[in-house]
Design goal:
The complex is a heterodimer of chains A (113) and B (115).
Chain A: E1 4-7, E2 10-14, E3 19-25, E4 32-38, E5 45-51, E6 56-59, E7 62-67, E8 72-77, E9 86-94, E10 100-103, E11 107-112
Parallel strand pairs in A: 2-11
Antiparallel strand pairs in A: 1-3, 3-8, 4-5, 4-9, 6-7, 7-8, 9-10, 9-11
Chain B: E1 4-7, E2 10-13, E3 19-25, E4 32-38, E5 45-51, E6 57-58, E7 67-73, E8 76-81, E9 90-97, E10 104-106, E11 110-114
Parallel strand pairs in B: 2-11
Antiparallel strand pairs in B: 1-3, 3-8, 4-5, 4-9, 5-6, 7-8, 9-10, 9-11
Classes of the chains: A mainly beta (113), B mainly beta (115).
């Protein structure tokens, strides 16, 4: 069945360094790729998303890239800060042939001060 | 972004009782809402998809008679955990789909503790 693989499961970086989280999806009909940040005890918060007709999108310190041919998409966080510490989930979504969103397993990011 | 409100944020109930969790879309109409369960340090487990005015679609392994879902309006879906047991204790999260597109926004989550 369709799935989304997310790596790494845990990532520890020094404050100020960059962090990269990578996802691979299997459903070729996926056309929307959101990223969520979940802090402890809270619901996931949408932080950035990208659609299949775009290869890259940036919002301040956060950027996402998408390679549709390889079915890869990545989240890049630059100049990391301690408050970036959280669990990040990627997702692949489609609405043709029935709406479906599949989430990755999550990456626990630790930013050390 | 769109706001999804979930209530209560924390609830403690006795074994054998039922508890209801509400999920509201505050500034948009949500034809589709989703309910998830999340265990500590694990990913989101989709329990069911709720469409306004129709029966919910449950994922394999989720007991529909135990986890009752109602989506009576375009802004409200409820999850009722019936005859709760301690193993039902978990973090329950709802999300709502914005319009015909793909964007999904999550609620703040509800911690359920069954004693």
């Amino acid at each position: 069945g369709e799935n989304v693989e997310q790596h790494p499961s845990t990532l520890s970086v020094q404050e100020g360094d960059s962090a990269v989280i990578k996802c691979t999806y299997s459903d070729s009909a996926s056309n929307y790729f959101p990223w969520y940040k979940q802090e402890l005890g809270k619901g996931p918060q949408l932080i950035i998303d990208i659609r299949s007709n775009v290869g890259e999108k940036k919002d301040q310190r956060i950027a996402v890239t998408l390679n549709k041919t390889a079915k890869h998409f990545s989240l890049h966080i630059t100049e990391t800060q301690p408050e970036d510490s959280a669990v990040y989930f990627c997702a692949a979504s489609r609405h043709t042939g029935g709406f479906k969103t599949i989430f990755g397993a999550g990456t626990r990011l630790f930013v050390k001060a | 972004g769109a706001v999804v409100s979930q209530h209560p944020s924390r609830v403690i109930c006795k074994s054998g009782t039922s508890v209801k969790i509400e999920c509201r879309s505050l500034d948009f109409q949500a034809t589709t809402m989703f309910w998830y369960r999340q265990f500590p340090k694990q990913s989101l487990m989709l329990m069911a998809t709720s469409n306004e005015g129709s029966k919910a679609t449950y994922e394999q392994g989720v007991e529909k008679d135990k986890f009752l879902i109602n989506h009576a309006s375009l802004t409200l879906s409820t999850l009722t955990v019936t005859s709760a047991h301690p193993e039902d204790s978990s973090f329950y999260i709802c999300s709502a789909r914005v319009g015909p597109g793909n964007t999904i926004y999550f609620g703040e989550g509800s911690w359920l503790t069954v004693v």
